[in-house]
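Batch manifest, entry 17 of 40.
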Amino acid sequence: MIGEKKKLSSKAVAVLLMVAEGHTYEQVLAAYPALTYLDIFQAAQEALALLGEGPPSGHVKRMAEIKKANPRAYEKWTEEEDEKLIQEVKDGYPIKVIAQAHERQPSAIRSRMVKLNLDEAQGVK
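Output type: structure tokens
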């Protein structure tokens, strides 16, 4: 409608308030279990769009390419996935193979291994 003031979605407001308070992505996701990393990125994009600013050049295209190659990129990890990852590391599978099986980027596998206190060369620490 003409003259109607645009507003952020309630999801974007909740995410941005937590980020503005200095909370990490992990803390935002813990507070709102239904959200994913992509929701956090989308909240920022929504705010930028409201300001008349777009995402950094090529960002949206890059995110789409990442999701095309790695369909589960930026999604929350489930307990089952964590258990599978732990077993794969114990069994000595290479990061690249694990990443393909989880439909995630190798960097996401390494990050999750750190969070789970796993070591690629030795299995569980």
